[in-house]
Amino acid sequence: MSDHQIFSMAFSKIYPLYVQKAERKNRTEEEVIQIIGWLTGFSADGLTKQVDSDNDLATFFAEAPAINPNVSLIKGVVCGVRVEEVEDPLMRKIRYLDKLVDELAKGKAMEKILRS
Length: 116
Prior knowledge:
Blueprint: H1 11-24, H2 29-40, H3 44-53, H4 57-62, E1 77-78, E2 81-82, H5 89-105, H6 110-113
Antiparallel strand pairs: 1-2
Helix pairs in contact: 1-3, 1-5, 2-5
């Protein structure tokens, strides 16, 4: 695993940014929680514990109960990078999360975001 600076960033610092991005576009924190839960398997309580624990992103994803098997359906560009082409597994998970929150902020329906 390469040593990207983002891997050591605290999830508790990034989570509020996801919520703010969603809320600026008239979406809710509950929808952000639903998206993160779909991707990682964390319950709302489990997610709260992760935010409170101040774990870094590497630990957050390492402790995720179960990455959704449908993540391969997440395609597209985030931060100028195609998520499906990211080679580092941890960076790909981070980009998946970024992409899902971007889709939420762009007004996409939850059914489509969650690949239902």
